[in-house]
Specification:
43% of the residues lie in helices and 19% in strands. By secondary structure, it is an alpha+beta fold. The strands form 2 sheets. Strands 1, 6, 7, 8, 9, 10, 11, 12, 13, 14, 15 and 16 form a 12-stranded antiparallel β-sheet that branches. Strand 14 and strand 15 form a beta hairpin. It is elongated, with a radius of gyration of 30 Å. It starts with 28 loop residues before the first helix and ends in a 5-residue tail after the last strand.
């Protein structure tokens, strides 16, 4: 047998075993020897790079990089970055990018901590070569390969970039600095960092395979419409609800993007009159506000037969986002090219026993039961804590002390916790309704949560169940119209974030393709 010295030695810090199990002689000895030599060469190169970094001093590196490395412990830096993006970004795209970045980080961390660190037990570098000023006060006690910090940084940056290239470009240098800091402070070899970064990028793409980004979703089914091209906003009158969400700030962006447009800011009580005047002056009507404000403008635009330009300036902006309109620039581009689509307009009106001439309209949804109170509670909290957290809080608050609503639905009287009627098929129903892919399908998405015990469980079933499922607690159908009778006068109902009160009977149907809306055709 050859002596132990005849075999090349491999430092214990290298991340792979020095020998291959199961075969120790014969034809397998040469491949084993080659593999061990190759591993030794890789580690030698890794160690040489580590020494090279340790011997160099980067400008401001001794001050910035150790702090940056500590700040990224437990993902705190990235959670803070995500919160900043969601708060300061001011758009659904920024919030989606922040959420996908955090989710990608979570996937990468789970893989690293459950598989990576345990499968390969590489020792940390010896710190003798690293200047004391760079060394972390608290040295990590886990194994070295792969770098969890680098994986988290790469996963977050990649996840953000998959949703928003702009925010990805902002985050990428910070992620690269965090990865470099792990070698600079002496807690990882360069190979650990590269492997961690590769795993982080892979985690972000793996998540995208399961949860597609907005750009991967199928194009919505929307019939194109003819609308005048209004470059720079010429012949466009934009009405702004100055008390709606971010409408006032958005109005200044509208003026910058469309210098020839007329922008009129007014209080909520003046909206109806301002919209009527604006529709008579321009070739198109612009509206800046939330879903309730857009609802008023849609009815006016449909009545006057002119196209509507929507600038999202509310808290949730469901209708604008379902059209792919997330920023002022999206609408401005559609106006410049004349790109527009036709969408359905939902309608609710009293039945034969009710008064005449009291039709109402909805672009998103109409609802009875616990939802109107949920809407009021959510709108009260949304400006402070955000739409989805406010929706969850409202759901918990509303379910306490509520009793089912008694109503006759399609000729049958029953107790109902919730009746939800969507203008087109929603992908999800919950505290904040989900996205629609087709706003001109000619149908109503009707969800019913029957009365009984455990209302929370019943409403949760509605939120997570498929669009057309049936169960003892929850039913979902698609119809062109629905009749609701036997209501107590004054029963509250909600439509597009607004709350009103009903007569004894309501008829709900649709006006197919009744509204033309400017819309970017690439979404």
């Amino acid at each position: 047998m050859p002596s132990p010295r005849a075999m090349p030695s491999v430092p214990s810090s290298f991340p792979f075993p020095a020998s291959l199990p199961g075969r120790s002689s014969g034809r397998s000895s040469l491949p084993a020897s080659v593999a061990v030599r190759l591993r030794g060469l890789l580690h030698s190169g890794d160690l040489a790079l580590f020494r090279n970094v340790a011997a160099r001093s980067w400008p401001a590196g001794d001050t910035v990089l150790p702090r940056l490395s500590r700040g990224a412990d437990h993902g705190l830096l990235w959670f803070g970055a995500a919160a900043g993006m969601a708060a300061l970004g001011g758009s659904a795209r920024a919030r989606r990018a922040a959420l996908r970045g955090v989710a990608s980080l979570a996937v990468a961390s789970a893989v690293i901590n459950t598989v990576g660190k345990r499968a390969v037990r590489r020792e940390r570098p010896v710190l003798d070569l690293v200047p004391l000023v760079r060394q972390l006060k608290r040295q990590p006690f886990t194994t070295s390969f792969p770098s969890g910090h680098a994986a988290s940084a790469a996963a977050f940056a990649t996840g953000v970039a998959l949703e928003s290239k702009g925010w990805g470009a902002v985050v990428a240098p910070l992620a690269a600095a965090v990865a470099a800091s792990r070698v600079y402070t002496g807690v990882h070899y360069p190979g650990d960092v590269l492997a961690g970064a590769a795993l982080g990028v892979g985690a972000a793409f793996a998540l995208r395979g399961v949860v597609p980004t907005r750009g991967q979703l199928p194009p919505p089914g929307r019939p194109p419409a003819t609308a005048p091209a209004l470059a720079s906003g010429r012949d466009l009158v934009v009405v702004v609800n100055e008390e709606s969400g971010t409408a006032t700030a958005t109005a200044s962006l509208v003026r910058d993007a469309l210098p020839l447009a007329e922008v009129v800011e007014c209080a909520p009580g003046e909206l109806s009159e301002a919209l009527d005047r604006a529709a008579g002056r321009g070739r198109a009507l612009g509206i800046c506000g939330g879903d309730g404000t857009v609802n008023l403008a849609a009815a006016v635009a449909a009545t006057h037969g002119i196209p509507l330009a929507v600038f999202p300036g509310g808290t949730l902006n469901h209708f604008a986002y379902d059209l792919g309109i997330e920023t002022v620039d999206d609408t401005a581009a559609a106006l410049a090219s004349g790109a527009a689509v036709r969408v359905d307009l939902g309608r609710f009106r009293p039945g034969p026993e009710g008064p005449d001439g009291a039709d109402g309209y909805f672009l998103n949804a109409f609802s009875l039961g616990v939802y109107p109170e949920l809407v009021r509670t959510r709108e009260r909290w949304a400006p402070r804590i955000g739409g989805w957290p406010a929706g969850v809080l409202a759901a918990f608050e509303v379910l306490r002390g509520q009793s089912p609503l008694e109503a006759e639905l399609q000729g049958r009287r029953r107790p109902l916790w919730l009746l939800f009627v969507g203008n087109g098929l929603f992908q999800r129903v919950g505290p904040a309704p989900g996205r629609r892919h087709n706003l001109a399908d000619g149908l109503l998405d009707i969800r019913v949560v029957h009365g009984g015990r455990t209302p929370g469980l019943r409403l949760l079933a509605t939120a997570v169940a498929g669009p057309l499922t049936r169960s003892p607690m929850h039913a979902a159908v698609r119809r062109q119209r629905v009749r609701i009778a036997g209501l107590a006068p004054g029963t509250p109902y909600a439509y597009d974030g607004e709350v009103a009160h009903s007569e004894k009977e309501l008829m709900i149907d649709k006006l197919p393709e009744a509204l033309t809306v400017y819309c970017p055709m690439t979404v």
